[in-house]
């Protein structure tokens, strides 16, 4: 069995090698047989064709051998599929939330992260869902991929076998910023992971700092920037207090981006669509305190 950064990667590589090797051997046998027949039965060597009605050993061989090969491939595929789809009972659950266009990872102790952190040697079960459209979490190095479906939970599992940092992609086209929906899997030594897992989050001192963290954790910065560059949504830089042209019920109007406008845009984003941008923002759940923190942070982005 091949080794890899995860137990699943080794399984997939072994099955892949078996199938490819079988195909190469068959290709070689068929090609050699064709060449032998071209030489042995060319017109110069056999000017008079002979009709052969049956050859029982040959018919048995080309029926039994492919059947055995197909059953063997099915066996390897089924055993690996059963292993890949069924996590062990002691697997550590991590909840994954996909949204346009970012990933969120939540742990049993309440810890949350934008990156997926896992301990080496411990089975991990990802319990996945989507807040909006269909997404697909793909970790190429681990050879694992699974859809994140709105309104239901899917899962996949793996065990990291070595430390390292690996890319996470979305492989289901999910809108304009699909190609930017990326994150990282960080496989850590068990002792390092336990220290990170047990560490309490530092209290955020100011509303502005809490507002920045809220925008990140709720996925807002996947569509909006804070440096003035344009993405799928308008930039947050200089937004507060600025005149904004919006489309309301199909009619164009100009409003001021004050507290009321920002709160309304978060709660009901399709009511006033900023001109020149698509109406794709979902409603973002936020408490009154969270709204105040977000607005406090936006005021700092002059």
Description:
With about 300 residues, this protein is of the alpha+beta class. It has 3 domains: about 80 residues, Helix Hairpins (Orthogonal Bundle), CATH 1.10.287; about 110 residues, Cupredoxins -  blue copper proteins (Immunoglobulin-like), CATH 2.60.40.420; about 90 residues, Cytochrome c-like domain (Cytochrome Bc1 Complex, Chain D, domain 2), CATH 1.10.760. The protein is built from 6 helices and 13 strands. The strands form 3 sheets. The protein has a 5-stranded mixed sheet with strand order 3-2-1-5-8, with no helix packed on it. It has a 5-stranded mixed sheet with strand order 4-10-9-6-7, with helices on one face. A 3-stranded antiparallel sheet has the order 12-11-13, with no helix packed on it. α1 packs antiparallel against α2 and α4 crosses α6. The mean pLDDT is about 85.
Keywords for this structure?
5-stranded mixed β-sheet, Helix Hairpins, Cytochrome Bc1 Complex, Chain D, domain 2, elongated, Immunoglobulin-like, alpha+beta, single chain, 302 residues, 3 domains
The helix-and-strand class reads alpha+beta
Strand order of the largest sheet: 3-2-1-5-8
* SSE string: HHEEEEEEEEEEHHEEHEH
Beta-strand content: 15-25%
Global geometry: elongated
Give start-end ranges of low-pLDDT stretches. Answer: none
CATH level-3 fold name of the largest domain:
Immunoglobulin-like
Radius of gyration: 29 Å
Q: What level of helicity do the residues show?
A: 25-40%
Task: Kindly provide the name of the CATH class of the largest domain.
Answer: Mainly Beta
Mean pLDDT equals 85
